[in-house]
Amino acid sequence: MTAPLEPALLDRRVDDVDPAETAEWLESIDGLVAAGGRERAHRMIEALAARVGADRARAELTTDYVNTIPASQDAPYPGDEQAERRYRAWIRWNAAVMVHRAQHPSTGGVGGHIATYAGAATLYEVGSNHFFRGKDHPGGGDQVYFQGHASPGMYARSFVEGRLDEADLDGFRQERSREGHGLPSYPHPRLKPAYWEFPTVSMGIGPMNAIYQAQANRYLHARGIKDTSDQHVWAFLGDGEMDEPESRGLLQVAANDGLDNLTFVINCNLQRLDGPVRGNTKVMQELEAFFRGAGWNVIKVVWGREWDALFERDVDGALVDLMNRTPDGDFQTFKAESGAFVREHFFGRDPRTLALVSDYSDEDIWNLRRGGHDYVKVHSAYKAAMEHRGQPTVVLVKTVKGYTLGPSFEGRMASHQMKKLALQDLKDFRDLLRIPIPDAQLEEDPYRPPYFRPEPGAPELEYMLERRRALGGPVPERRATHTAIELPADAVYASAKKGSGAQQAATTMAFARILRDILREKKVGHRIVPIIPDEARTFGMDAYFPTSKIYNPRGQNYMSVDRELLLAYKESEAGQILHVGINEAGAVAAFTAAGTSYATHGEPLIPVYVFYSMFGFQRTGDSFWAAADQMARGFVIGATAGRTTLTGEGLQHGDGHSPLLASTNPAVVSYDPAYGYELAHIVRAGFERMYGGVHPDPNVMYYLTVYNEPISQPAEPEGVDVDGILRGMHRVSQADGQGVPAQILASGVAVPWAIEAQRVLAEEWGVAADVWSVTSWNELRRDAIDADSAILHAGEPREPYVTRRLREGSGGPVVAVSDYMRQVQDQIAPYVPGRWLSLGTDGFGFSDTRAAARRFFRVDVESIVVRTLEALALDGAVDPAAPRQAAERYRLQDVRAGHTGTAGGDA
């Protein structure tokens, strides 16, 4: 019989005027619990409270500390539990031995984690045997986000399946020293691209990416690109990981979209890396409340089937009450002690619960398992999650960290840092798992205990392989073959190449027009995924609303306030734009899901994520790093770029360094174009590299910084140096006439300042300066580093591109300027022939006019002039007094004397 529902609640109520009637209601509730389970009873109580409109009535966010699914409703287990238990033991053994062998002195002790997979093995094995569908499944297969620290278990299963061999396992964390057999420490698709799909070990990013992967599946289906209706997303997470704000911060997205194709499985072993997650309270209860409050379906798996008989006998709810009151710190301690200890310190807290186990031996008590180690309980939870409709589901599963590894590991505070087993630990572990390895083999070299895999044809092995065949093949597996797409036609770039004529236009507007024309392309436009974190109107992208529409799986069920306007806000179930709200983290997760669809689904999507440049690599750089690991492809547009260009917005909006942050990500190809025609060539090259099918390294993201300052956009010059634009620099204005030679390098919005400085230098100081538009400081540096590397590796000496081009210029010193800090320009300083001086916007930004800010930072036209004269004076090419005279003439100390830049542009 199931225990009555929280009778202690009556003690907190007012005096009961009709105890008999109360007893009848309680008896009815007890009957409901017995017939439908405690969850059903709680739902009924909530409905009754809502009906009477009680002031204090609200949906209870937590239930008792027991399994959500009562024993009477456990699903029949569909597999051969004995066979699964046998090969689960082999996998456990191999996972632990792989990490242990990696600590051999000859390898230098490369580390690894034993305890996480040991505790979570049942969670993964139930999934692998009955739920996780591979790529060859008729429905298309599932996406599984494996917990990073559990990677040894995935490798160990693949070894038993025959996907990996002993040399591979011995290459764990030795990817270069065991070339061809190295295994990455964690799930890293870039390092093992035919195996891992999703990087998860940067805590908090896995949950976000899983949510947006589930949304991307629905998006693909809604847009008619692929039928994903029979695909499911699984994310395996740790209870400690859920403390990350990113882990919890986007739960409402999944609930709002009704993503019932998503299941979180949270391994609640009650331990963080160093100690208890919630020693004084209960993390499972906390997570239950949080997920319920966010609109998720919650299933708790707390206790194994050995507890079922005790719950049946717990007629007065004493055991349930004791479980509700016992904090996690105590539960962790119990699993590090003994059955006698648990009898005294847990059951002994209440004479009624002590009586429940009076006929249990200490060994019986010790064998009362947590639910996460019971195949039947975990299977029932997964099945219920798959069958639930209308909400995402979280399965909270209680486990023991280091389970089966023995008393040195199980539930110990230091288990996460323990990398190897003592000889006796190995023997005990072998005996517990019944691995047929004799003592002699373990004693011969305790650092290298043998792996175990049965001979081909073993019935358990055949059963294991058959289960995977039935589910569509191996998991994890990544495939990069995809549907070929037709690239945008040349015509879509024509408007950007024409220039702005008599009008002025910012590069943000130039890009928006290019994207508009690409969206109209019949053969590729439907694959473009514009992603905007609530700034579409700022970036001039609200023009897409009426035609492309905003994706919302619930459609638009309200009357829009701007419905009569030409650019009305329109949502649709088949909308193309992902308008994620004020949510940069979610936007990068959406970018990652779309940008990897070519591999995940074999159907390319081309994400174009547009955001305030300051809030990109600075705020969400870790997510971009994970996107790079997952080999995402797409365009990342840093709009409203520059330290001084975004007038009035102040310190935290002024971007003076995003190209520098972008340069730290090897998968980011970064450009800072000045003109629309440069943008056109860069965007075209990005499509060709990422989706053209011929580039040796297509797995990159193009980061383009664009500005909101309107300028006169020139038409593309005849014979423009396209190769130079793409490689990082091209000459946009050659010195006209004779004079002292110099060269000015500028990027982005600074190029017009440099051209104006060129004029002033020629007319007032007799200096003939060439002006170069540096479309990418980062790519110039990468090319130079490649040239260095060729020499390091005894290759053919090669002059860096920037060095060669500047030698072809007018000569003289080089002055570099941008709307970023000097370190952005100084990246290429070692490769510049002759003298180098730079200007930049170092320091914090502030609110002021563009002209005043540029004068303050010394990057305006006159500052470029003075800096060029300084370089020439140092070279002895002009009068040493010239720089000081120029500074006085132009009143460089007076910010009010600045006049560089135009007004206008949204902020």
UniProtKB/TrEMBL annotation:
Mg(2+) binds at D239, N269, Q271. Its EC number is 1.2.4.1. It comes from the Bacteria. Coiled coil: none annotated. Pfam families: PDH_E1_M, Transketolase_C_1, Transketolase_N. It catalyses: N(6)-[(R)-lipoyl]-L-lysyl-[protein] + pyruvate + H(+) = N(6)-[(R)-S(8)-acetyldihydrolipoyl]-L-lysyl-[protein] + CO2. Transmembrane segments: none annotated. One of its GO terms (molecular function) is magnesium ion binding. Residues 490-712 form the Pyruvate dehydrogenase E1 component middle domain. Component of the pyruvate dehydrogenase (PDH) complex, that catalyzes the overall conversion of pyruvate to acetyl-CoA and CO(2). This is Pyruvate dehydrogenase E1 component. It comes from Microbacterium barkeri. The lineage of its organism: Bacteria, Bacillati, Actinomycetota, Actinomycetes, Micrococcales. The gene is aceE.
